[in-house]
Amino acid sequence: MKIIVTSIFVEDQDKALEFYSETLGFVKKHDVPTGEYRWITLVSPDEQDGTELLLEPNEHPAAKEYQQKLFADGIPVTMFGVKDIHKEYNRLMEKGVTFTMEPTNMGDITIAVFDDTCGNLIQIIQQ
């Protein structure tokens, strides 16, 4: 068994697609109409056959509440690995990304947290 898709709730699928592809650099794999919304997944440019990230509409009241409470409490909804966190931090800062935590050493790892502009905090990690 392996993980093939993981999802995050987003407030606006178009805005999320733009942020995750143009700002973060993920590659769109699927964009399929599913009624009122779309099945939009992205992959890492380095692993285009790897795990897909689904941009899930947060239209269900429980999804909205979950997303809002995690954001309010400063809890990231997912984590992305990077090779050089300081380089990635600077690249994203230049693109106007807002960080709630600058790169912080935590023993064997360094983490940082940013706002994805779609209702989520995202953690990046260098191991």
UniProtKB/TrEMBL annotation:
Pfam families: Glyoxalase. InterPro entries: Glyas_Bleomycin-R_OHBP_Dase, Glyas_Fos-R_dOase_dom, VOC_core. Residues 1-127 form the VOC domain. PROSITE patterns: VOC. CDD domains: VOC_like (cd07263). Gene3D superfamilies: 2,3-Dihydroxybiphenyl 1,2-Dioxygenase, domain 1. This is VOC domain-containing protein. The lineage of its organism: Bacteria, Bacillati, Bacillota, Bacilli, Bacillales.
